[in-house]
Amino acid sequence: MTAITDVAAYLAEFDDIPGTRVFTAKRARAGYHLNQFAMSLMKPENRERFKADERAYLDEWPMSEAQKQGLLDRDYNRLLDLGGNVYFLAKVFSTDGLSFVQAVSTMTGMSVEDYQAMMVAGGRSAKGARSIRDKN
Questions:
Q1: What architecture is the 7-97 domain classified under in CATH?
Q2: What is the pLDDT of residue 73?
Protein backbone atom coordinates (compact mmCIF):
# COMPACT_ATOMS: atom_id res chain seq x y z
CA MET A 1 0.00 0.00 0.00
CA THR A 2 1.38 3.38 -1.01
CA ALA A 3 1.29 6.27 1.44
CA ILE A 4 -0.54 9.39 0.31
CA THR A 5 1.99 12.19 0.44
CA ASP A 6 -0.10 15.03 -1.02
CA VAL A 7 -3.44 14.90 0.76
CA ALA A 8 -4.72 18.05 -0.98
CA ALA A 9 -4.07 16.56 -4.42
CA TYR A 10 -5.68 13.28 -3.36
CA LEU A 11 -8.82 15.03 -2.11
CA ALA A 12 -8.96 17.22 -5.23
CA GLU A 13 -9.39 14.03 -7.28
CA PHE A 14 -12.85 13.61 -5.70
CA ASP A 15 -13.98 16.82 -7.43
CA ASP A 16 -13.08 15.30 -10.80
CA ILE A 17 -15.82 12.64 -10.71
CA PRO A 18 -18.66 13.74 -13.05
CA GLY A 19 -22.07 13.97 -11.42
CA THR A 20 -20.79 12.97 -7.99
CA ARG A 21 -20.16 14.88 -4.81
CA VAL A 22 -18.05 12.92 -2.37
CA PHE A 23 -18.96 13.78 1.23
CA THR A 24 -15.52 14.72 2.51
CA ALA A 25 -14.52 16.12 5.89
CA LYS A 26 -14.40 19.58 4.27
CA ARG A 27 -18.00 19.23 3.11
CA ALA A 28 -19.02 17.86 6.49
CA ARG A 29 -17.57 20.91 8.23
CA ALA A 30 -19.22 23.32 5.76
CA GLY A 31 -22.57 21.57 6.09
CA TYR A 32 -22.63 20.91 9.82
CA HIS A 33 -25.47 23.31 10.66
CA LEU A 34 -27.33 22.51 7.44
CA ASN A 35 -27.30 18.82 8.31
CA GLN A 36 -28.23 19.53 11.94
CA PHE A 37 -31.20 21.55 10.68
CA ALA A 38 -32.26 18.62 8.49
CA MET A 39 -32.01 16.23 11.44
CA SER A 40 -34.19 18.57 13.50
CA LEU A 41 -37.03 17.68 11.14
CA MET A 42 -37.19 14.24 12.73
CA LYS A 43 -39.33 15.83 15.45
CA PRO A 44 -42.96 16.48 14.47
CA GLU A 45 -43.05 19.83 16.26
CA ASN A 46 -40.04 21.04 14.26
CA ARG A 47 -41.56 19.88 10.99
CA GLU A 48 -44.70 21.86 11.82
CA ARG A 49 -42.70 24.98 12.71
CA PHE A 50 -40.72 24.67 9.47
CA LYS A 51 -43.83 24.18 7.33
CA ALA A 52 -45.58 27.12 9.03
CA ASP A 53 -42.78 29.61 8.25
CA GLU A 54 -39.76 28.13 6.51
CA ARG A 55 -37.69 31.29 6.50
CA ALA A 56 -38.24 32.02 10.19
CA TYR A 57 -37.25 28.47 11.13
CA LEU A 58 -34.16 28.55 8.91
CA ASP A 59 -33.11 31.87 10.44
CA GLU A 60 -32.81 30.10 13.80
CA TRP A 61 -29.88 28.12 12.38
CA PRO A 62 -26.37 29.51 11.81
CA MET A 63 -26.30 28.47 8.16
CA SER A 64 -24.98 30.52 5.28
CA GLU A 65 -27.48 32.51 3.25
CA ALA A 66 -26.65 30.26 0.28
CA GLN A 67 -27.61 27.17 2.32
CA LYS A 68 -30.86 28.79 3.47
CA GLN A 69 -31.71 29.80 -0.10
CA GLY A 70 -30.86 26.32 -1.35
CA LEU A 71 -33.33 24.90 1.15
CA LEU A 72 -36.04 27.41 0.22
CA ASP A 73 -35.47 26.58 -3.47
CA ARG A 74 -35.21 22.84 -2.73
CA ASP A 75 -32.05 22.90 -4.86
CA TYR A 76 -30.63 19.65 -3.57
CA ASN A 77 -27.60 19.59 -5.85
CA ARG A 78 -26.61 23.04 -4.61
CA LEU A 79 -27.12 21.86 -1.03
CA LEU A 80 -24.78 18.93 -1.66
CA ASP A 81 -22.19 21.41 -2.94
CA LEU A 82 -22.69 23.44 0.25
CA GLY A 83 -22.04 20.49 2.56
CA GLY A 84 -25.40 18.78 2.69
CA ASN A 85 -25.47 15.03 3.09
CA VAL A 86 -28.17 13.34 1.03
CA TYR A 87 -29.17 11.09 3.93
CA PHE A 88 -29.73 14.12 6.17
CA LEU A 89 -31.48 16.00 3.35
CA ALA A 90 -33.88 13.07 3.13
CA LYS A 91 -35.54 14.58 6.21
CA VAL A 92 -36.41 17.61 4.05
CA PHE A 93 -37.72 15.34 1.27
CA SER A 94 -39.88 13.51 3.76
CA THR A 95 -41.19 16.75 5.28
CA ASP A 96 -42.29 17.74 1.77
CA GLY A 97 -44.04 14.38 1.35
CA LEU A 98 -41.56 13.10 -1.23
CA SER A 99 -40.07 9.64 -1.37
CA PHE A 100 -36.32 9.31 -1.73
CA VAL A 101 -36.77 8.24 -5.38
CA GLN A 102 -38.98 11.25 -6.13
CA ALA A 103 -36.55 13.70 -4.55
CA VAL A 104 -33.37 12.22 -6.00
CA SER A 105 -34.87 12.07 -9.50
CA THR A 106 -35.10 15.89 -9.37
CA MET A 107 -31.33 15.94 -8.85
CA THR A 108 -30.72 14.00 -12.06
CA GLY A 109 -33.02 15.85 -14.46
CA MET A 110 -34.84 12.58 -15.07
CA SER A 111 -38.49 11.77 -14.51
CA VAL A 112 -39.28 9.65 -11.47
CA GLU A 113 -40.19 6.77 -13.77
CA ASP A 114 -36.98 6.98 -15.80
CA TYR A 115 -34.82 7.34 -12.69
CA GLN A 116 -36.50 4.38 -11.01
CA ALA A 117 -36.16 2.24 -14.13
CA MET A 118 -32.46 3.12 -14.37
CA MET A 119 -31.89 2.15 -10.74
CA VAL A 120 -33.85 -1.10 -11.05
CA ALA A 121 -31.70 -1.92 -14.09
CA GLY A 122 -28.53 -1.52 -12.01
CA GLY A 123 -27.88 2.24 -11.94
CA ARG A 124 -25.86 4.43 -14.24
CA SER A 125 -23.49 2.79 -16.63
CA ALA A 126 -19.84 2.84 -15.67
CA LYS A 127 -19.09 3.61 -19.31
CA GLY A 128 -18.80 7.21 -20.43
CA ALA A 129 -17.38 10.26 -18.72
CA ARG A 130 -15.06 9.16 -15.92
CA SER A 131 -13.28 12.48 -15.47
CA ILE A 132 -14.40 16.09 -15.69
CA ARG A 133 -10.86 17.25 -16.36
CA ASP A 134 -10.14 14.71 -19.09
CA LYS A 135 -13.72 14.56 -20.42
CA ASN A 136 -13.47 10.77 -20.78
A1: Orthogonal Bundle (1.10)
A2: 97
